[in-house]
Amino acid sequence: MRASLIQLDVDPDESVISRRERAGSxxxxxxxxxxxxxxxxxxxxxxxxxxxxxxxxxxxxxxYDAMSAAxxxxxxxxxxGSLVERDPDxxxxxxxxxxxxxxxxxxxxxxxxxxxxxxxxxxxMGAGKDVVTVPLPTTTLGLATCYxxxxxxxxxxxxxxxxxxxxxxxGWPARRRAHWSxxxxxxxxxxxxxxxxxxxxxxxxxxxxxxxxxIVDPWGEVVAEAGPYEEVLTAELDxxxxxxTREDFPVLRDRxx
Length: 257
Fold this sequence. Notes:
By secondary structure, the protein is of the alpha/beta class. Helices cover 26% and strands 26% of the residues. The mean pLDDT is 97.
């Protein structure tokens, strides 16, 4: 299984329309991949809080349409990162979309843990409630977003629900990059899953982004890691390695809580 993580540079001087077109082109260039992943809130920037309301769109809006078309054209499973979704009741959500190779929506996940404490996303957006997995022909994806990475309980629930690959789009700040790398490996080790963590490059909302998207195997070994700039990270993964790891070292069998 070939997976590609597209670590976009979210430049505030680039229009959303231009970035959608660029993301679509990068996806279409990955037609040889089975799974393509984009980062968190790439249409607007994860720290561009003041732009959330203006950038919000319905679930089936322009980003949905562009990503559906790109997935269908490339014939890939596409985790299209996340967007600012405006629910019909007016609530904003940080919502991830997953499309099948025919361009159909396979799943949507609203981020459960909102970052910012008493400001930013934490006060501007509603919290998701559902644990979401997506069955693929050779594996099952478990969905989480950025700040979710700090909450191992969510990943244990995803594992219990059958997840074998944990996909985590993010807009992680550079000043906490060490946590990003550490937590991605921890989630892989404790759940004996692949982790595909796709971040952004550049600076948005005045916050330098960490980049360093990473793919980690079920033993916690780094399969591939990006640098700090825009980059496409591609790696060959073996879905059977999850079952083999769990068989060789059956730690999950000993869970009590």
